[in-house]
Q: What sequence folds into this?
């Protein structure tokens, strides 16, 4: 695993300080493998370099999260960051508050309470499509940060969704595995229309899928 990681870093170094990594797409075996728990495979400097590469790649895509398997490295590390949205209705309905940049090492999550919410999601490794995924509204996240400090906290709303999406990647799960299949839409003008709705009521009526009772 260290050899695979260092090859990735060597290619990025050769491409220059602003290099980003190619994002693999659905069908790549790294996206369907259970990621290996990180256990000091890299030096501190190499880990920092990998985190910086993932951060640049996520921002350039652009996205709000990136797991190491998405750059072909089946290691249990993910990065997340969300500046939020300008649309106040969307922000309120989705509880989408800014999420500062952070690193998740060996993360896991567990639902807190029974409330579930459904919204459109996309994925940098499934280009061209969006679909509705029903997920727990609140989750307890446990992981380490990039310095090895323990993290144990409860997240709500969109930050909880981002953490679930990225942690799922580390288990070999794509968001499509959890999606309402009738909601699947190409991310063209119509797909963008469905995904822009604060809560996808119109999409549910038109495309014929159910939302959880707790949907706003």
A:
């Amino acid at each position: 695993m260290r050899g695979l990681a260092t090859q990735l870093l060597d290619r990025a170094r050769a491409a220059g300080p602003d290099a980003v990594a190619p994002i693999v797409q659905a069908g790549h075996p790294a996206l369907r493998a259970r990621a290996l728990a990180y256990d000091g495979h890299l030096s501190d400097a190499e880990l920092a370099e990998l985190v910086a590469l993932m951060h640049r790649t996520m921002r350039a895509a652009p996205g709000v999260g990136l797991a190491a398997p998405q750059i072909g490295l089946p290691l249990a590390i993910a990065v997340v960051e969300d500046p939020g949205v300008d649309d106040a209705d969307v922000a309120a309905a989705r509880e989408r508050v800014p999420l500062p940049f952070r690193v998740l090492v060996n993360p896991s999550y567990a639902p807190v309470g029974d409330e579930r919410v459904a919204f459109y999601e996309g994925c940098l490794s499934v280009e061209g499509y969006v679909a509705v995924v029903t997920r727990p509204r609140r989750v307890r996240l446990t992981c380490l940060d990039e310095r090895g400090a323990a993290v144990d906290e409860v997240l709500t709303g969109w930050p909880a969704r981002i953490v679930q999406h990225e942690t799922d990647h580390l288990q070999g799960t794509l968001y499509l595995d959890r999606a309402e299949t009738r909601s699947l839409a190409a991310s063209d003008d119509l797909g963008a229309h469905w995904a822009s709705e604060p809560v996808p009521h119109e999409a549910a009526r038109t495309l014929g899928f159910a939302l959880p009772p707790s949907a706003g």
Remarks:
- Residues 53 and 104 are 15 Å apart (CA to CA).
